[in-house]
Amino acid sequence: MKSLIWFRRDLRLEDNRTFEQASGEVLPLFIFDSHLLSPLPKEDRRVGYIYGEVMRLKSELRARGLDLAIFYGEPLKILSRLKEQGFSRLFASQDYDSYALSRDEAARELLDCRFVLDNYLFDPNEVLKKEGSPYTIFSAYYNQSLKILSEGHYAKGLDLPKKLAPYPIPAPPSLESMGFSPLPLLESLKILPQKRLEEFSSKITRYALDRDSLEAEATSGLSLFLRFGTLGVREVIRRLKVWQEEGIKVAPFYRQILWREFYAMLLYHFPHSEREDFKPMQMRWSESQERLERWQKGECGVPLVDAGMRELNHTGFMHNRARMVCASFLTKNLHLHWSWGERYFASKLLDYDVAQNAGNWQWCAGSGADAQPFFRIFNPYTQSLKFDPKGEYVKRWIPELRGISTQNWSSEERWEGLKERYLAPIVSAKRSAQEAKAMQNTLRVSS
Ligand code: FAD
After folding, report:
1. Inter-residue contact 382 to 306 (CB < 8 Å)
2. Which position has the higher pLDDT, 287 or 419?
């Protein structure tokens, strides 16, 4: 029997469950999905990153006497053509967003499909409440998963012998032929994922203390690699176990890895939460395009919010604390629905993943399964003072503020006196927060 190994969110050979399980005559393949790529701008850096990783995967496969057939087009049409060439079985890693689920359902109609758990630690039906329903409270999910994790070994699987099936491997499409400009790879992406994990060894002891600091660069920087599976999450767990045995306090890092699992599980069981409130909110949302555009450009006149958005626009990344402040500001100060911000992040974040993005946006907005309550509203000035006390982060992204003492944006009142030196704030953080709370209270009472 000839099998296809379809690489998707698992762009590596090392510890890849899908690749390991296939045996016999195989054709490894990757599809640049025209349905997903066509709405993206020519300069989308993610496509360039994936392209580089796919080409690397191809040469690694060739070094093993295999190869990678790279296609551009509609996956189902391509699979259907391959079926005509005698391929009857398909191995691929599980993927849970609504597009992926319906695509894979259609693939099942064509081929004998084995969807393998690889990109996450748990199948969405693995960590459930006693009566079998999904958890919606993170701490309960976390405790249960931690128990399973502490008992599991997460050893590498058995790489079954395979042989390249006879098939004329096509020349890979170029980035240009798919409508993209080849852009230089960002410096931050030039590092190998395994090296980044290795380097994190020197930071893990301070992670709990410094992970929220905008100045300390204390986080792992692994999200992009986990997103595309260039680093396997089981490798991260194995490393965490070693650190734990060395007496390092790793719980705060486990927590973040398990938030990732939690959001993937939630999206699987509650697919509407990809675009709609998990818990419907009572709020009169603004429809102001001007507010949205100023937020997107990092021109709200609020230092930390502008710095975060400029970091995103320049690098495709944003520190988690800044993501939280920018998301809170969009929803609770500018009164725009979270989905507007979610779509913008989706267009810019290198590590964009619908489950993580929508889940976190809903957490910040207050509509999520286990969210920050709507009435808890970040004050962006206080957040600056707390997490960027020397103003290094803000000044890196807003050169206009370099000559100004950070004390000036440590509170809204102080900032008021400085507003002619920069953009005047789009709204008063305090007043807009009070308005949001009042609006919520009124609508809740009258509904
Ligand atoms: P670390 O702090 O080193 O964390 C280690 C890993 O844990 C991360 O690589 C990531 O895989 C996971 N993780 C950490 N924080 C979270 C979290 N809050 N939720 C889920 N997983 C987490 N993360 C994405 O991967 N893709 C997204 O599209 C995304 N969108 C976000 C949108 C908003 C509004 C917010 C507030 C957060 C979002 N996050 C998203 C979560 C988080 O900001 C990033 O995962 C984190 O900043 C990545 O940096 P790191 O790898 O250095 O994280």
Report:
1. no
2. 287
Out of 239, 254, 256, 311, give the residue to mutate to test ligand 1, the one with the largest number of ligand atoms within 8 Å of its CB: 256
> Where exactly does CATH 3.40.50.620 map onto the chain?
2-117
> Given a cut of 60, is residue 320 above it in pLDDT?
yes
**Nearest CA owner, ligand 1 atom 13:** 256
- Specify the DSSP class assigned to residue 368: S
- By CB atoms closer than 10 A (0-12, 13-18, 19+), residue 391 is buried
Q: 207 CB under 6 A from ligand 1?
A: no
Taking the C-alpha atoms of 339, 365, 315 and 348 in order, what is their torsion angle to the nearest 10 degrees? -10
pLDDT digits (tens, 9 = 90+) for 79-131: 999 999 999 999 999 998 999 999 999 999 999 999 999 999 999 999 999 99
Q: Mean pLDDT check: name the lowest of 112-121, 185-194, 269-278.
A: 185-194
447 falls in which pLDDT band (50, 70, 90)? low
pTM score, whole prediction: 0.96
- Positive or negative torsion for Cα 255, 45, 103, 11: negative
Using a 6 Å cutoff on CB, does residue 18 contact ligand 1? no
As given in the structure block, the two tokens for residue 257 are 């890895």
117 is in an annotated binding site: no
**Arithmetic mean of pLDDT over the chain:** 94
Question: Which of the four CATH numbers 2.60.120.620, 1.25.40.80, 3.10.290.10, 1.10.20.140 does domain 120-156+193-269 have?
Answer: 1.25.40.80
Where are any strands of DSSP class E within 47-204? 69-73, 87-93, 112-116, 162-164
CB of 327 closer than 6 A to ligand 1? yes
| Contact present, 22 and 3 (Cβ < 8 Å) | yes
